[in-house]
Amino acid sequence: MSAPPKKKTVVETGDGGLGLGIATFIANGEDLGPIIRHSFESGKPEALMNNLRSIVKKKEVEIEELCRLHYEDFIVAVDELRGVLVDAEELKGMLSDENSHLQEAATALLLKLDDLLELYSVKKNVGEAIATLKICVEVISLCMTCNNYIAEAKFHPALKTLDLIHKGYLQSIPLKLLKKVVARQIPLIKLHIEKKVCSEFNDWLVHIRRMAKQIGQVSISQASLARQKDEEMRARQREAEGHSHAGPDEHLYSLNLENTDEESALAFDLTPVYRAHHMNTCLGIGEKFRDYYYKNRLMQLNLDMQISTSQPFLESHQPFLAQVAGFFVVEERVLRTADGLLSESQVETTWETAIAKITTILEEQFARMRTASHFLLIKDYVTLLGAAVSKYGYQIKQLIEVLEKSRDKYHQLLLLECRKQMDDILTNDSYEQMVIKKEYEYSMNVTAFHLEYDDAVPDFPYVAPFSSSVPEVCRIVRSFVEDSVSYLSYGGLMNIYDVVKMYLDRVLIEVLNDSLLNMIYARSLAMSQMMQLAGNISVLEQACDMYLLHAAHLCGIPKRVAERSHAGLTARAVLKASQNAVYNALINLANFKVDEFMVLLENVNWITEEAPDDANDYMNEVLIYLETLVSTAQEILPLEALYKVVSGAMSHISDSIMTTLLNDGVKRFTVNAVLGLDIDLKLLEAFADEKFDSTGLSDMGKETTFRDCLVEIRQLVNLLLSSQPENFMNPVIRQRNYGSLDYKKVAIVCDKYKDSADSLFGSLSNRNVKQNARKKSMDVLKRRLKDFS
């Protein structure tokens, strides 16, 4: 049953707007604080209070109205609530009973539960203890493993183990004491490993310095072997080129498949370096170790670069250079295999420092050298050092440059040694033709230097056209060429032939030719010896081609190329000039000897009244000497030299007779003396013609014969014996018969010429007439010569 709705009663307030606002705020559940604060701040709290009272009254009215409308429902609800209270009391009693029964039943169980919980607590504690002990056991086990690794010098797994302990276990160790001990020991163990590795590395530094010389010697030996193989291959190539007309020989070129594993030959252990580098890197001090390695190796290099002052450089240079080579072979291996321990710039800087020091030492030592062979030994080992290190990538330009700078010094020493040897040989030579009794002697002294005239082996004993000094000189020159090629080989020059040829010219000109000229001008040789010297020079001049071919062969230039070259040796022309010098010396010697016999002209009776039947004594002596001279010269000298010497002697004889007639020693001479000179000249001319033909000079087409050398004195004798001497002034006759005579000389001689007394031809009227006619003609000639002068 519901009551009818009633009208709401509206409460009027003095401030209707404010009341509606408050009512709206309350209905919406909003905060009234701002309105209340505003009212009090504006000084009108009464209005607010009135409105609030009004709202309260209104709500009370609404509550009353609601209660009137639902009072019956309230009564029903109260009745039901009373019934529920009765049921609740009953339920409460039942629950109390059940609780009592439950507590009685659970008392024993609670005791057991306490025991169980206690057991659970013990179990938890035991589990935690087991976990703690397990961690400690693992840590201790790792510590023991680390100790074992350290004892076995297995530092890398030891560091791995320490790292595992530090990162995986240290923070989780439950025992503070154990944790503290482990934390304190880890850096100590690392420090121990660092010291141990450093100690091993220091031992390695000492060992590798001791081994460096052996390593360098092995490397240089390999370079020497490679050079030897290269030279053998070049020799086979030259041989193949020399016999190319016979077709290729399949055995001349072959692929060398020998094992040349240099790494196995240069066996040295870098394990301590690798280990030290790796350990220090693992320890986080890799940069410190790299600096330590570099500085220590630099100190070792500085010690290695100090040469010994207690022994000559010739004896110490090989160990010194081998030590340097070994050092840089090791450095190259470390650079290549030690994973960044060295940088390329460090190795290059170290090498540049070392090579600068080496070049300085070499320049100083080369400047002190006094023996070419010592110079060459050091140079060869230096080039082997360069070859050994260059295959590892090191630059050797400075080494090559210092050898190039010392080239002239070496050759100067070589020239001095050659000069001494040649001077000794030429001074001690007997200058007699060399007698060769055995074939091996012929091969050693003739064939070896291509001094033979043909390929046929002569009968023995064989008399060579030269003396023993010639093959000895050839040996010296050939040795000079070989030494020069040895020095210039494997240097910076690509084509050494021109340089070798230049020095070959120098040894032939400055040494050989000068020594020969000294012998020529020393005037210590007899005629036969001087002739042999002339023959020797001719042979040596011909040997220049052999020297040049030998130099070309050693320089790797094929023979056919060398033979086609038009650029010969300047020394050949110089030796040719020296031949002329020795020929002049021979001529002077011959003339000097002739002068000894021409002195006998003083014994000639220039005013004899009897015509001689035989030659004068001086001429007989001269002819004997000339016979000896020609026979000796014919055996030794080439025809050209023989021609010059004999022609010079003939000309000198002619000049000597002319000089005698011109000198004041002959005041006057008669026709009979002239007849004696005529006999002398006829004998001399016959000798000259015979020798000119017998020596083969006539076949050479010489324009001037031996007889022609006597033309001046012959024309003078013919003029003096002429029936009409005045024809001398006839230009045509003079040109035809007396072209070699000089006016002044003729005037002097004619002035001394006196015909014989009339009594000499008194019984021969016809001859007397001729004599008078000749005398008149001679007088005319004398007058005309005086007028001409």
Protein model, in words:
It is built from 27 helices and two strands. It is mainly alpha-helical and 789 residues long. It folds into four domains: 129 residues; 166 residues, no CATH class; 179 residues, Orthogonal Bundle (Tetracycline Repressor, domain 2); 173 residues, Tetracycline Repressor, domain 2 (Orthogonal Bundle). Strands 1-2 form a two-stranded antiparallel ribbon. Helix 3 packs antiparallel against helix 4 and helix 20 packs antiparallel against helix 21.
In terms of topology, how is this protein built?
Layout: H1 16-28, H2 33-42, H3 45-151, H4 155-169, H5 176-242, H6 262-265, H7 271-282, H8 286-304, H9 313-337, H10 344-368, H11 372-390, H12 397-405, H13 407-428, E1 435-436, H14 439-445, E2 462-463, H15 469-488, H16 497-521, H17 527-542, H18 544-554, H19 559-564, H20 570-598, H21 617-636, H22 639-662, H23 671-694, H24 711-721, H25 731-737, H26 743-752, H27 765-788
Helix pairs in contact: 1-3, 3-4, 4-5, 5-7, 5-9, 5-11, 7-8, 9-10, 9-11, 11-13, 13-15, 13-16, 15-16, 15-18, 16-18, 16-20, 17-20, 17-21, 20-21, 20-22, 21-22, 21-23, 22-24, 23-24, 26-27
